[in-house]
């Protein structure tokens, strides 16, 4: 029975600063396909990885504006053209009556777009990833920090990558196999 191909090499660290320094060292060495895992956000590591802020806010704003325009336009069209009912002498296109539904629809669209945009930008849902099966990786949500150097990177060479990671003084270096 043949082994699955390697997905990469993973180093485990005890502290966030060690992970951040490892990411910086890997970037300085020319690595481009790497991932960091930690139990909480580390802005310095994200900056070293080159991760930029996701445009979820802009997605929500655009969807909210579209939803508001759609709701206001629909309410106006229905009130003025489809069912023009004069209630209490008010004009048919009295915009203050449209505002509660316009506001609520805008919030609904913005929230839905923010959720869908966040999931899409993060590549979720991803129920299985080879890193999940790495030795000790279950502690990534508790108290450990991990750096994964992917086999997709042109610099990847199994022994050389493991030696590079050992030079960063991790607690452990392990090979991650593809599922």
TrEMBL record:
Keywords: Membrane, Transmembrane, Transmembrane helix
Source species, domain of life: Bacteria
Membrane-spanning ranges: 56-78, 98-121
Name of the protein in question: DUF3341 domain-containing protein
Species for this entry: Roseomonas populi
